[in-house]
Amino acid sequence: MMIKAGSLVAVLFVGSALVGCGAAAEEGEGDNTIQSHSAHFETFVGKDGKVYWDLVAGNGQNVLRSQGYTTSTSAKKGALSVVANGPDATAYEILEAADGTYYFNLRADNNEIIGTSQMYSTKTNATRGVSTVRQLTNLLGTSPTVSTGVKQQRFEVFMGEDKKYYFHLRAGNGEIVLGSQAYTAKSSAMTGIKSVQTNGADTSRWVTVEAVNGEYGIHLTAGNNEIIAQGELYSTKSNATAAVSTLVSTLSQPIVVISE
User: To which H or E segment does residue 134 belong?
Assistant: First the structure.
């Protein structure tokens, strides 16, 4: 059984996000060069006790997030539904949030939402994200890898298949809670991590934004009001606010950085 988006309040973390302040980030989120051997699904248990999955591209980017399932078996069936429905271009809807950012949903034949993307700075980037998910689902085959995310709170820096550098933040439950754009150098990615940790520990740097259908996203901003991180959607503003509180607490503590 899949739980609707309201259960995300208990997860209290966000998915792969847009990060770029203070470093030489590339235009556009994510890498469009996909290889099937390293793309996979990662599962984790949220603070609500529900099971979630992320679809992770070969470069480490989280490109799609599920809603909550009551069992691991149901979550794995949901991952198979992504593979079945993902290649169909008509299964995607791109939506605009009130602040002008974009995201997309992947829907099944019965119109139920299977997965939701991160938020993107432009519609072009969201459209590119749809293309990436479609490529992945064409390559994964009928028996995709479904594994448990690494259960250690840490930043992970890695080189994508485009030879650019990325980082993401993992929570202790294995969830990828924050992710970056591409950087031209590893040192720039390290600077991006410092910017996220410095600004993310300050509650005033976080903003909640209304998307559609009463859902809310969260932004992390720098002192110049530039958006340096974006999260996924929550069903209510109070859920988004709760997520911010958890992220502020997390980013206030030293976090290990793992670099390849």
Answer: helix 123-140
Report which DSSP code applies to 209.
Answer: E
- Look-up of token digits 């019965």: 110
Look up the CATH number of domain 2-259. 2.30.29.80
Q: Using one digit for the tens of pLDDT, what is the confidence trace for 3-46?
A: 443 333 333 333 333 433 333 344 344 444 444 447 899 999 98
Distances (CA, A) of 45 to 30, 52, 54, 66, 152: 25, 6, 11, 12, 13
Tokens read off for 88: 């169909």
Looking up tokens 């119109």 gives: 111
C-alpha span between 52 and 121 (Å, rounded): 25
| Cα 190–chain centre separation | 19
Taking Cα atoms as reference points, which of 20, 10, 106 lies closest to residue 63? Answer: 106
pTM summary value? 0.76
- 166 touches 189 (CB < 8 A): yes
DSSP-derived letter for residue 250 is H
